[in-house]
Specification:
Elements (H helix, E strand, L loop, with lengths): L8 E6 L15 E11 L13 H4 L5 E7 L4 E5 L2 E7 L3 E4 L4
Antiparallel strand pairs: 1-2, 1-5, 2-3, 3-6, 4-5
Length: about 100
């Protein structure tokens, strides 16, 4: 697949059922989902340089957790498969094995 997201956006393949789950307390309108990073856009223009660069935080192939609201994310279908287009600031963590 050849897809390059816009700056600050991550293309994520949603995982159906993860063996590693996170529970978010205090907000009934949001939930944490997990997915595999397939592509990342460049760093967003005018981004705060004190923040960690996107490619230092996660990389293609990583399993990430991202915040999903009731309205859900922008999504796209490529070759019949649904993918999410997630803003970098909505990423909540990277799954790391020991």
């Amino acid at each position: 697949m050849k897809y390059i997201p816009s700056p600050g956006i991550v293309l994520i393949q949603p995982l159906q059922e993860a063996s590693h789950k996170i529970i978010v307390q205090g907000n009934d309108n949001s939930r944490i989902q997990s997915g595999k990073v397939l592509a990342m856009g460049m760093e967003a223009p005018n981004s705060d340089t004190s923040k960690v660069a996107m490619n230092q935080y996660c990389k293609v192939g990583d399993i990430v957790y991202f915040l999903s609201y009731e309205g859900d994310y922008d999504s796209t279908k490529i070759e019949g498969q649904k993918y999410y287009l997630v803003k970098r600031e909505d990423l909540r963590g990277v799954y790391a094995e020991k």
